[in-house]
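Model the whole thing, not chain by chain.
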Amino acid sequence: AQKITQTQPGMFVQEKEAVTLDCTYDTSDQSYGLFWYKQPSSGEMIFLIYQGSYDEQNATEGRYSLNFQKARKSANLVISASQLGDSAMYFCAMRCMDTGRRALTFGSGTRLQVQP
Amino acid sequence: DTGVSQNPRHKITKRGQNVTFRCDPISEHNRLYWYRQTLGQGPEFLTYFQNEAQLEKSRLLSDRFSAERPKGSFSTLEIQRTEQGDSAMYLCASSLVQGPPYNEQFFGPGTRLTVL
């Protein structure tokens, strides 16, 4: 079974500052993928970034980077230079990559509020 | 807009009634997923299709729930004899079979169900 834990129900950050959203995971799978999604108030889940369990380098996508620490089973999302439009719910998710299973397992999310 | 679309966006029904939701995936995507999201939680996987074949079902998908994708294009999710506990956002997602290794799932805006 897979489990995602996000321990920060809510976070505040000042505009233009960086913020780290925490995610820890548990799985018995050897090959797995970690995902971050953003959910604005409109409800649609927006894919941000992906990290494979065998990837040696941390993933980056524009202002988003993923701080992957495999031994600690953590996959924290770092948002640099926060913008007001970053205010949303953020979900960490994972799935097994080496079987036919396609289901994503999500955490409970972190609500990020960017203050001007 | 060629993203995932879901109809209706909102549905209010009385306990015991049947409801049906529709999802139209991105046109070239042959995988389609259904998730349920209750207030304050992350999405939970319900089921997924590859073309018209239903390949994975969650234990959350009780016998009151049925999903179909008859021609491998749009999908419907039906809930029979609705209960108040069925009140949630029902999210649909789609992805490619051949694509980036992580086959990111693209989500629709969801259908919010309220059972009175």
